[in-house]
Amino acid sequence: MPKYQFFCKPDSNRKEFTYVDMGSETFLAEKAQLIDLGFEVEDDVIYAESSEEAIEKFKSNFCAPLEDYANSTSAGGAATFVFELYKSAFGKKKQS
């Protein structure tokens, strides 16, 4: 089954997104270009029969229950805390 990686613009609340088919020969180059354009990897890989199905799954935010599950343990919650702390400390600063 094909797998897709989704990318979002920071602070867009998942509204500005795109994706890349991870089976594509150009996946790594496309991923690098998206990162250079300011996109960030969003959630985990999505397995779907088509890009339309992948988008539907992404929009339904089906990965959120996985995050909830991970955070239900003390180790998972601590890992999420550290990750979010790192993002807030070293993430891009907004220009005012």
Polypeptide structure, described:
The protein starts with a strand and ends in a 6-residue tail after the last helix. The longest helix is centred in the C-terminal third of the chain and has 17 residues, at 74-90. The chain is globular, with a radius of gyration of 15 Å. It folds into two domains: 1-62, no CATH class; 63-96, no CATH class. It is built from four helices and three strands, in the order ββαβααα. With 96 residues, the protein is of the alpha+beta class. Strands 2-1-3 form a three-stranded antiparallel sheet, sandwiched between helices.
Record the SSE blueprint.
Layout: E1 3-8, E2 17-21, H1 27-36, E3 40-47, H2 51-59, H3 64-71, H4 74-90
Antiparallel strand pairs: 1-2, 1-3
Concise synopsis of the structure shown:
With 96 residues, this protein is of the alpha+beta class.
